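Recap quiz, item 2
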Amino acid sequence: MRNRFAETFYELAKDDLRQCMIVADISPAGSMSRFRDEYPERFINTGVAEQVMIGMSAGMAQRGLRPFAYTIATFALYRPFEMIRDDLCYQNLPVTVVGIGGGVSYSTLGATHHAQEDVALAMCVPNLRVLAPCDPLEVEAMTRWCASQEEGPVYLRLGKAGEPVLTADLVEPWQFGKVRKLREGKTHCIFTYGVITKMALSVAEELEAHGISTSVIAIPTLKPLDTDSLTVALQAHSSVSVIEECVPRALGLEIESLAHRKGYQGKVDTFALRDEFIHCYGSHKDILQAHDLTERLIMERLRHVSNDKTR
Amino acid sequence: MQSDGVLRAAVASKSSIERCRQYRRRILNVSQRVTALHIAPAFSCTEIVDVVFNELMRHDDPADIFLMSKGHGCMILYVILAERGILTDGDLNSYCTPNGRLGAHPDFGVPGIAASTGSLGHGLSIAVGQAYAEKLKGSRSRVFCVISDGELQEGSTWEAIMMASNLGLSNLIMIVDNNDFSGLERVSIGHPAVYPIAEKLSSFGWSVADCDGHDAAELRTALQPSACGRPHAVVARTVKGKGVSYMENENLWHYRSPNEVEYAKAMSELSEPGR
C-alpha cells in the first residue's frame, strides 16, 4: 500500500505544485525518495516531531498548499492528536494525515506501534473524514481524491506493503462515501474495511463452503458512513457480521447502532481487536490471532448462521 | 461608559502611546458587557501588537500575516481590527454572545484572524507552515507571531522553534510576550528553567533581540531582523495587566472583568498621559 501511495503521490505532485509531503522521520521508500530528490522544497522532514508536522501542515494549507502529513499511524494520529483536532479539524483545512501500519501490522514492534484504536478515534472528531483502503487500487483512488478535494481534513489509514489486489474485478470505481460490494450473497453479509478485508473474504468462502450464501461489503469510507447502502444491505440479509482490525468502538459499534435504529431482527456479530494491549511479537497474522482474529475463530462464532434463519 | 465611536475617533493619527491608551480603554469598555475576559494578557502585549500591526506590517499586496498564538490575548487584536474596519463595532459589542462572532479565543474564518488559537503551543507551528508556504510561493509576505512565555513550556513550541531554524524562515518573526506569568503563577517561580529565553533561542539558530515590550521605540528596533536567512525572535519584557495599577502583576486579572468602581478607576488611570 505504501508503495502505491508513494507512486500515486509522485505522479500527482510532479504536476501540481501545491502538493507537499511532510513526514516525521520516516524513511521515504520507493517513489517517495524520488519525490524528495526531485522536489526537495516540497518534501519536508520535521524529524521526530509530530506536533509541528501537523501544525505546519495546517499553516501550509491555510496558505494554499495541499499537504500530506505522513508517518506511522500511531505517531501520525495519537502523538499530535490535539493538533489534528484543533489545527486541522476545527479550522477545517484540506490536509491528509496518512497513517501507515494501521491496526497491528507492525507486528514485531509492540503496542507502542499498534494503531489499534486509530479508526475509532478518528471517527470521533468533527470534520475529519476517515478512509481505510483494502488494497493498492483503493489506495491509488483515495490518494487522488485526497489530493484534489478542498473540503477539509482526511485520515487515510494504510497498511504496510505487499497487500494483494482485491478490487480489480469491480466495475464501479471507488467513490468517496460509498460502500463496495466485493462479493454477492443472499443470507449473510460481512462488513469490513482495510487490510483485514482479505480475511473477511476467506471467511465468506468458508461460509459458502458450508452452504451459506455470503456477501462481503467493503466500507472504505468509515466517515461519513454510507448508511443508506448499509441499511439496504441489512434488509437484504438475515444476519450480518463486522470484521475489523480496530478496537471494538469503530465500525462494529456503528453497525450495531444502525441495526438497532432500523429495527433489524437478524443477529449482528462483531469481530474486532481485543480491548487490551497484547504483549506478543510475531507476524501480522500472529498478532491478529492473539486478538482472536482468525478465520477459524470467526467461523466458530458464526456457527449459528444458517440458511434456515430467514426472516 | 464612553462610546466606542468617540474612542475610535480619538485613536486616529496618534502616537503609539496614545493609541495603546485608547486600545486599553476600549478593551475595558468591552469588559463591562461581559462577566469575564482576558484583560491582563491583552494589556501585556498591547504595545507589541500595536507596533507590529500599525507600523511594521504590510497590509496591501503581499499582505503580511499576524498570528496571535497566545489566543487569550486576542482582545487587543480585536480592537485593532475594529479600528481598521476589518471587524465592526457591532462585533466588539456582541463579544462572547450567541449573536456575535468573537469569542474569548480567536476563530479562523473571522476576518483578520489567521488561526484558531486558545490551546497553547499551537500557533508557532502554524506560523512556521504559513511562513514556509509563503517562501515556497516566492511571496514577500512575512508572518508575525506573538507567543506567551507560558507557551515556551510546551514541547510543541520547541519543535516549531527548531523547524523554523531548520527551514531558514527569514520571513518569520516571533515575539515572546514575556510577562513572566502563566495561569497559576510566575514563570520564574513555577518554571524557572524557561530562562534565559534569548540565549536559548539564539542557540537554536534564531536571530534574537530583547527589549522593553511596552516601549514602542525599543520594539521598533528589536523587531528589525539582524541576520539573513534566519527566523527572528524578540523577547519583549512586559508587565501583565500593564496600564492599570491594580491589575499589574496581579494574576486575578488574567480573566476577571472589573466592576463599576474598578472600571472607573482604570479608565481614570488610562486618561493620564504616561501610563
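Chain A touches chain B through 28 residues (CB under 8 Å).
The CA atoms of residues 68 and 173 of chain A lie 23 Å apart.
End of item.
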